[in-house]
Design brief:
Layout: H1 4-33, H2 40-65, H3 73-83, H4 87-97
Helix pairs in contact: 1-2, 2-4
Length: 106
């Protein structure tokens, strides 16, 4: 039988990944339709959707890399809410548990 933590790390996180993918997909779909970057009102929704999708993926990574027990699951959720929508803070939290390196394309 699956305990509450294992369930939390599987099914709700799978749903979060689907939602995050939808946000990124919608942003890229709109980007593909974009003819220029001149109109800020057309660019903003693209950046917003992609940013929300990335943030949600980062939060999934935080949950999956944290050592969570049944007792402190709510504490982890509170910490995620405190991190809010700050991509750098989420990235730093991920880096505490994993090795992430971005390389330049040049």
């Amino acid at each position: 039988m699956m305990d509450h933590v294992l369930y939390f790390k599987n099914f709700p996180m799978g749903t979060e990944i689907q939602i995050a993918g939808s946000f990124v997909y919608l942003g890229l779909q709109e980007f593909n339709r974009l003819k220029s970057f001149y109109h800020e009102d057309e660019v903003f929704p693209i950046l917003y959707h992609i940013a929300v999708g990335i943030e949600r993926l980062q939060k999934v990574l935080v949950v999956l890399t944290e050592e969570i027990t049944v007792i402190d699951r709510e504490k982890v959720e509170e910490k995620l809410q405190k991190l809010g929508h700050r991509h750098v803070a989420l990235h730093n939290r991920i880096r505490e548990k994993t090795f992430v390196e971005f390389t330049s394309l040049s």
